[in-house]
Each structure stands twice: as structure tokens, then as C-alpha cells.
Amino acid sequence: MFDANDLAVLPVARWIQAGVEWLSYNFRPVFIAIKWPIENGLALTDAALQSVPFPITVLLFSAVAWKLAGRSTALFTAVSLVVIAALGVWSEAMTTLALIATAIVVCAVIGIPVGIWSARNDRVWNVVRPILDIMQTTPTFVYLIPVVMLFGVGTVPGEVAVIVTAVPPLIRFTNIGIRQVDKEIVEAGHAFGADSRQLLWEIQLPLAVPTILGGLNQTVLTAMVMSVVIAMIGAEGLGLVVMQGLGRLDVGHAAIGGIAIVLLAMILDRVTQGMASRSGRPNRAAVKAGFWARLFFPHKLEEIKT
Amino acid sequence: MSERLKIDNLYKIYGGSPEPAISRLRNGATKDRVLAETGLVVGLNNVSLSIESGSIYMIMGLSGSGKSTLARCVNRLNEPSAGKILLDGRDLVALDEQALREVRRTRVSMVFQHFALLPNRTVRENVEFGLKLRRIAPAVRRRKAEEILAVVGLAAWGERMPHELSGGMRQRVGLARALATDADVLIMDEAFSALDPLIRAEMQDELLRLQRTLQKTILFITHDFQEALKLGTRIAIMADGEVVREGEPQDIVLDPQSDYVAEFTRDVDRSRVFDVRSAMSAAAAADLIGGHRVVLCANGGFAIDGDGRVKGHIARARIDDLRAGADIAPLMASSFSAISADAKLLDVSRVFTAGQPVAVLDGDDCIIGTVSPEAVLRQLSSSPAAPKSKEKVHV
Ligand SMILES: Nc1ncnc2c1ncn2[C@@H]1O[C@H](COP(=O)(O)OP(=O)(O)OP(=O)(O)O)[C@@H](O)[C@H]1O
Ligand SMILES: [Mg+2]
After folding, report:
1. In chain B, at which end, N or C, are there fewer CB atoms within 10 A of the end residue's CB?
2. Is A193 within 8 Å of B177 when comparing Cβ atoms?
3. Residue A221: how many CA atoms within 13 Å on its side-chain side?
4. Which residues belong to any copy of the ABC transporter domain (chain B) (predicted)?
């Protein structure tokens, strides 16, 4: 009888093991260099979130939610944050939030330029796409092994895993967003003598904003999920609450972590979705393209509603 | 008028290296044969045109005949495969990217079939678009945009978004955007085709009105022969990437030269196409009768002054009186009409009054001929000079 295991002669596992070991041995400085900004960014965000008094944080977040996604989301945000605090996992929730916030900044810094590059150069996209396919079909916790080998254990290596997992959707959506810009409009750009940079900044990016924000929503949710999973390699935050609960067979404790995670995820989802759908409307607010304008110039938004 | 744009033996081949297709075309192969033998699609096949400055040059043809390809070659949205495009003598095909951008920013602009406005910008910002690309100061381009918006009748709409406007208004914005750059060559690829008929006619009138003052050189693509006749100073008709007929609208209607072209001209309202000149009997040289200069015609004669201007009409029966030395003033009693030689037949049919002669005048109001209702009718019903297959002769 043939058994599938008889065929198990390919020592792929050993090859990968050897490859990763070789990388971590020879490229140590590279990984340290990667780690450094993440570590500091994370420390800063975490410190900030932890030090602001709870009521102020609730107010601030609700205000931001209001501006980005409207009143009902603001209300939901306030209530959810209070519930999280009441569950007694405020500090852990803030750590998770710091993980996500930092990851999003890094993802935006990497993902949007790579997405733009992919959209404007088919050869780049032909290289990037299969990589994204592999990244997105690999189960998330499979990332953890190489991450541990290359970066060690703890919160910062965990954050690396979060970023790696969360960046693909943003690259994809940025790429699609730019490619989907109406061909005739891009042509109008050419016809009126736009150079490559003007084409990007005057036409492609502004018109791709709604799609890119859709990608941001995906990235935020992926980061949320991953920020929990990385508790397995010793990262702090809400994931750790769940892990501890499970480890101690303390279902209640684990459930508290779970509830807080769900609430946080819903806040982030609603806020980013609100941003994306609002920017989709062709109105005068979208003119000034989105996020920061809406954060700082809310009156422009009110103008449109009337 | 001088030549602004000259297209010289232009070829455009889609789908790969063009040489095999071009050499076959030069040896007389058709578009279909080139496709069968090489798999390459012929976009343009040896197109040569000369476009006068200040004219509206119409490119006509069935779908797929290469109209858009030709228009888009002019600003090199399509890269020509061979040949030259001379703008004031300078070959656009040879320009590098930098110089091409400069030409697109300042010399050649474009109006798109589906408007291609930026949905996230106000109407005014859309009009400013070309100027912004040229990095012109905001205040300057704003002033310019407002000025142009007033010209196209949208002064009050500058701060609206494009989606708040109707189709016709949006295309006015498209036109304003093209005019704002002060480019002297305008490419309009089916610019009015997406509009419904009434708005379309209105836009055509608007373009003609603007053109009277702006005197742009316009390359206008259409598949509508009526539109070509209404707007065109000259018309080029394309088939399979070639120009099969080129000329003034009236000449093309009068003599299509091929069945393909005759298909377009068949249902044309000739009274709007032909001018009076085409039905006029040219005046003979003035005779000196009884010491007066008289241009004789079928039903009498027109007395003219030294400059050739008509003083009055003398009925045929009274010509002899004049010859006999009668005073001219009472003889010129019979009434007559006069019309410019450039008026259309439709206009002359309005001035005919029973039995009255009609004098045809040139630009200086000098008589150059006469026109009769019979001649007009003959012109309206005349079948084209080119031989046509029997079933098509039902004009
Ligand atoms: N990008 C392209 N790639 C390949 N072939 C093309 C391309 N653009 C046009 N063609 C071909 O070139 C020929 C001329 O097309 P073109 O678009 O110039 O026609 P057109 O006269 O503008 O037609 P329409 O009235 O439908 O707009 C057609 O046979 C078309 O299939
Ligand atoms: Mg076309």
C-alpha cells in the first residue's frame, strides 16, 4: 500500500529553517534597522495612549469618530470605550490600539507608495502581485515562526508580524484605485500636458482616494485580528488577556478580552468605513481629499450636508 | 488664410511592429489583407491633409474608419507609426516628451466625447486645469477661468460640481477647459455625440458663434454628416484608415465620387448645403445701352452703376425703349430682389416672388449673376455627377 507519508522525502522544512537561520545570522543589522522605528513608534504611541486620562481619551476618540464617520459612530465609540473601561481591560485595550495605530502608519507609509508604483508599472505589479497572493493566503500565524526567528519574541516582533499581515490589502486597493481611474480623464490629463507627477497628484490619487480608504479599512481590520494573534509570541494587549484566560482555563477572563476586542474592532471598522464611503461622494469635501482635511476642517463638511 | 496643420503620409498601425503592415500598404494592400497576413490592425493608411488656420475641419467616416486615431495622433495620444504632422511647419511626431508637453499645454487642446471632467473639482477648477498644469499663479488662472466661463455662458456655475450640471453644460465646461489654455488648435473627438439632438444643435450653434470671434483651428471628428455640413469648412471622409474624399461640403455633396461617400450625402438637405452661386447663371459683361450700363438676363436687364452695383431692373419689354433713347428712371420701375451669392438655396427660395428677377451679388454688392426658381429646383434635384448603381438613384 502506498501511504502519502512514503512520499515525504522533500526536506522543505529543513531548507526553510536553514534559510531563515542564514538570514538572521547574516542580516542581523538589517533586522535591527527595521525594528528600530517600529519599536520607537510603538513605545511613543503606547506611552501617549496610556498617559492620557481615560475620560479625555473617550471624548477625543468620539470627536474624531464624529468628524470622520458621523454622529452615530461617535456615540457607538463613546459607549464602547466606556464598556471596555468597565470591563477592566482599558490599559490592555490601549496597548492593542497603539499596536494597530502604529501598524497603520507604517502600512500607509509602505503600502500606498508600493501600490502607486504597482499601478503605474506593470512589471512591478507582476512581481508584487504573486507576493501579495502568497502573503494573503498564508494563515496568519504561520508568519509568526520566521518573525520569531528573525526578530525574537515580544511586542515589537509581534508588531512586525502585524504590519506584514496588514499591508497587502492597502497595496492592492491603492493599485486598483489608481488603475480604475476613468481612462478618458487620465487621457485628458495627458492631452493638457500633465507630466507624470501632475498626473499622479492632480488626477490619479485624488480619484483613487475612496478606494484607498476602502483598503485602509481592510488593513485596519487585518491589523486588529493580527494584534490579537501575536499574543502567541508574547505580545501584550487584549490578545494576551484572552491567552491568559485560556491558559488558566478561566473562560470569564478570556471572554472579557474577547468582548473588548470585538468592540474595538467595530469602532475601527465603522470609523474607517465611514471615511471611505464619505469620500466616495463627489462633493466639495472630497475636493480637499479626505482624511486630514476632515479632521481639521469639519466646517467644510457641514457646508456640504446642507 | 494660411496653413496651420499639415498631415503628411501618416500611418498608424496597432498591434506590434508596424513595418510589415506599412510595406504591404505601400504596395496597395487593403486593411483586411494586412490584418489577415500580419495580424496588425491598420488605424491610418497614408493620410495627408492640409488644415487652414481658422477653419473647422471635419473628419467623417463610419465606425472604425480611423477618425479618432487620426485626431489622437495630432496630440500624440496615439503614437503615429510613420509620417509627419506639421504644426506651423514643426513636426510634432519628432518632438521629445518635454517639447510635446509644451505643445499640449499651449498649442493643441482637446474636447472629449464624454467630457472627461474631474468629478472632484468644481467647474471653475476644471476650466483652470490646463493652466494649473502650466503652473500659472492661482489668481491669474482663476481670472482666466471666470472669463472663459462667461464666454460659454456658465458664469454663474463656476463653484458648482460637474455632477450638478446637465450634459450640454458639462460639455461647455469641456470646451471652456480647452479654450482656457489659449491653444490655437482644438481637437474635438465626437464632442457633441453624447448629447441629445436639441442640445447638440444648440452646442453646434454655440461653437459656430464662438468660432466667429476666436478663429481657432478646429479638427472636429463626427460620424454625423449633417453635423459635418453644418460646422465644416472642409470635410475629409475616411474609410479603413484612408481619406477617401476631401473637399468643401458642397463639392462633396455635388460629387461624392464613390458609393461609400454617396451613402452619407444621399439624405442630405441640399437646400441647406448649396449656396446660390451653384444655381446662378453668371452675368454676361455689361452692355452699353442708350448710354447706360446694363447686365442683360433672361427677363430683362439690371442697370448698374460704375462700381457694378445694381441701380434697378428693366423689364425685357422696355429694353428697346431704353435703346431708343428713353429716360432710364421710369423704365426701372419693375421690382426685383437681390441675394448674396453665399446664401444657401433655402434662403433664396424665400426671396422669390412671382415673376420677379433675383440678382446675385458678391461680397461687394456687385451683381455677378441671376438666379431663377427653375435653376434652384434643378440644383436641388440634380443627381450626383458620379455614376451610381441603379437602386441607389432615388434622389
Ligand atoms: N488601442 C487600439 N488598439 C488596437 N486597435 C485599435 C486601437 N484603437 C483603435 N484601433 C483600431 O483602429 C481602427 C480605427 O479605430 P478608431 O477608433 O480610430 O475609429 P473611429 O473612426 O474613431 O471609430 P468610432 O466612430 O467608432 O469612434 C479600428 O479598426 C480599431 O479597431
Ligand atoms: Mg472614435
Report:
1. N
2. no
3. 13
4. 5-265
pLDDT value at A137 more than 70:
yes
Atom index in ligand 1 nearest the CA of residue B66 equals 18
Nearest to A236 by CA among A105, A101, A99: A99
Cβ within 8 Å of residue B9, ≥6 positions away: B46, B47, B48, B82, B83, B84
**pLDDT range class, residue B222, cuts 50, 70, 90:** very high
A171 falls within a domain: yes
Q: Taking CB atoms and an 8 Å limit, are B116 and A202 in contact across chains? A: no
The C-alpha of B203 sits at a distance from chain A's nearest C-alpha, in angstroms, of 21
Give the model's pLDDT for residue B383: 61
Query: pLDDT of B121-177, one tens digit each?
Result: 999 999 999 999 999 999 999 999 999 999 999 999 999 999 999 999 999 999 999
Q: Is residue A3 part of a domain?
A: no
A230 belongs to a structural domain:
yes
Which ligand neighbours the alpha carbon of B11 most closely? Answer: 1
Give pLDDT, residue B327: 79
d(CA A152, CA B279): 96
- The interface predicted TM-score of the complex, written ipTM, equals 0.80
- Mean pLDDT for the stretch of residues A161-188: 94
Interface test with B, best of A184, A192, A284 (most B CBs within 10 A): A192
Ligand showing the shortest atom-to-Cα distance for residue B13: 1
Q: What is the CATH number of the domain that holds A258?
A: 1.10.3720.10
Q: Per-residue pLDDT for B21 more than 90?
A: yes
Residue of chain A minimizing CA distance to B121 = A287
Q: B63 to chain A nearest CA, in Å?
A: 19
* Residues of chain B contacting residue A203, judged by C-beta atoms under 8 Å apart: 118
Parent domain of A278: 26-294
C-alpha to C-alpha distance for B189 and B68, rounded to whole angstroms: 6
What is the nearest CA distance from B111 to chain A, expressed in angstroms?
Answer: 8
Q: Is the CB of B122 under 6 A from ligand 1?
A: no
Asked, for residue A302, whether it belongs to a domain, the answer is: no
The preferred substitution site among B17, B31, B41, B240 for testing ligand 1, maximizing ligand atoms within 8 Å of CB, is: B41
Q: Which of A31-35, A137-141, A198-202, B189-193 has the lowest mean pLDDT?
A: A137-141
Domain count, chain A: 1
pLDDT of amino acid A280: 63
Q: Is A202 on the interface with B (CB under 8 A)?
A: yes
Q: Supply the DSSP string of A174-234, one letter for each residue.
A: HHHHHHTS-HHHHHHHHHTT--HHHIIIIIIHHHHHHHHHHHHHHHHHHHHHHHHHGGGGT
> Domain B277-380 carries which CATH code?
3.10.580.10
Would you say A156 and A42 are in contact if contact means Cβ atoms under 8 Å apart? yes
Handedness of CA B230, B231, B235, B241 (dihedral sign): negative
CA distance B357 to B300: 9
C-alpha cell at A24: 538572521
Distances (CA, A) of A144 to A95, A140, A273, B78, B273: 19, 8, 29, 50, 79
Q: Ligand 1: which residue has its CA nearest to atom 18? A: B66
**Residues 6+ positions from A253 with CB-CB distance below 8 Å:** A241, A244, A245
Residues of A with CB below 8 A from B190's CB? none
| Closest ligand by atom to B12 CA | 1
